[in-house]
């Protein structure tokens, strides 16, 4: 029986999209401006966002005991990716703050290129454990997973 590649491709595209939202959304202009962030505007770290996401996913996907090892492999990669992204954004923010106060268009594109390359590397690490977990899922779990990655919703805020 041949599986359709479309759902896996859709999941990969959604992971890339969600990763971009989570990790590129860091507002590094504060670092360049030299202003201190107030607690109200403090950036949430990728590690904090990932931990929250892991809890949401684990509850929504109803990971079984048989899937625990696959789930743990996936969450380990997610945590490592988040730590790497925090380190990268911190490094880039410092470099940007130490450099000129404003970047020209080429420097700005190079800056975002570094983050995009990191996302690609992280996706390449993420996909194999995610695919292994997805392959072990029941039809109900797959349906839930597909919905989450398609809509970003965890089943609580469904449109009527």
Q: Shape from CA axes?
A: elongated
Extended strand count? 0
Structurally, the number of domains stands at 1
* Most strands sheet: none
Question: What would your notes on this structure say?
Answer:
The chain has one domain (6-18, 45-149). The protein is 72% helix and 0% strand. The protein has helices spanning 6-24, 29-33, 46-61, 68-98, 105-136, 139-151. Helix 1 (6-24) packs across helix 5, helix 3 packs antiparallel against helix 4 and helix 4 (68-98) runs antiparallel to helix 5. The protein is elongated and about 50 Å long.
Descriptors:
160 residues; mainly alpha; 6 helices
Q: What's the short story on this structure?
A:
With 160 residues, the protein is mostly helical. Helix content is 72%, strand content 0%.
Question: Would you spell out the secondary-structure blueprint of this structure?
Answer:
Elements: H1 6-24, H2 29-33, H3 46-61, H4 68-98, H5 105-136, H6 139-151
